[in-house]
Amino acid sequence: MDLRNRTLGEFIIENQSSFKYSTGELSKLINAIRLAAKVVNHEVNKAGLVDILGASGDINVQGEGQQKLDVLANEKFIQTLKNREIVCGIASEEEEGFITINSNDKNHQNKYVVLIDPLDGSSNIDVNVSVGTIFSIYRRITPVGTPVTMEDFLQPGINQVAAGYIIYGTSTMLVYTTGDGVNGFTLNPAIGTFYLSHPDMKFPETGRIYSINEGNYVHFPQGVKNYIKYCQKEEDDRPYTSRYIGSLVSDFHRNMIKGGIYMYPKSSIASNGKLRLLYECNPVAFLAEQANGKATDGHGRILEIKPSELHQRVPFFCGSKKMVDKVMEFIAEQ
Ligand code: P6P
Asked: I want to staple 155 with a disulfide (CB 3.0 to 4.6 A). Which of 93, 159, 265, 319 is the partner?
C-alpha cells in the first residue's frame, strides 16, 4: 500500500492500534502538537516582517537571552496542550519548573507529560537559518488524578512513548516516532496539511558528514580532538565533510537522511556539554535509535541515563551507528 500522501491525521488514525497504550489520547496529543506546529510555523515564517525578531530583552532559566519567537513558541505550545484534556504536566526549556495541569480537578484522567524545547536554535532566527521544536512524551508514573511531581518528568529516555521534532526550514516538517519507526511529514502551507513525505526514515549505517562546533576545539577532551583529526585525515573514504548549522534539529535531520554524526561534547568550558538531556537529547536519541542510529554521552546509551535535574546537560554524540562507535573508540583511548 503506497503510504505516500497520507495526511498526518490519517496516519495517526491508521497507526493508533500500534501505539503501546492505544486509548486514543496519544493520538489526540500528537494532533495537538500538529496544530501548535502550524501556529508557530506561521509566526516563524513572518518573523522578518513583524516586530518579533530579535531579543525579547528577557533572560531564560538557562541564563540565555530569550528571542521573542522563543517566548511566543513556548506560549503557543503550552497553551495548545493546556487547552486539551490530555496532558497533566509540561516542562519546557523556557520554564524554570514544570507546569501542573488540572491539579485542582481530582477527576481528571490525563496521563501524559510533555517536555519541549519550543524553539531550538533560536539564535538563528534573525539570520534566517532553520530552527526547530523538539518534544518528548511520557506516561506519568504517579497516580492518575493527583498533581504531577518531578518524578513524572525525571524518567529515563527509554520510557518515552513518543518523541519528535518540527523543523522550520526550506519546508516545514514534523518528524516523530511512537516506538514503531520514524516517519516524516511535510506541511503543504497552501492548505495547512502535513503529508507523509518520508516514510520509515533510517540512518545510513555510516556517513561522511561530521557536525561539531570546531571553534571549541582547544577546549575538547583529547579523544574528541583525535576523532576530529581522524575525520580530516586523507585516508580511505576520508576526509569527511564538516557541516554545522548551529541548530540541532537541522543538523540531525540532514545527517539522518545523508548519514553523519552530530557531536556536542563536554569541554574545559562546559563540563557536561551544552545540550539538555530531557528535551533535546532524549527525544533525539529515541528518534535516532528508532532510525537504526545511535546516541551516547560518549560512554553509554543516552536513553538509559537516569535524570537528576529538569535542565541537566549531557555530552551528546548522535548519528550513524558506525560513526558513533568510532568516536566512542577514540574517547575510550584518550
Ligand atoms: P553552539 C542551539 O542553542 C543548540 O542548543 C543546538 O540546537 C545547537 O546545535 C547548539 O546549541 C549550538 O551551540 O555552542 O555551537 O553555538
From this structure: 159
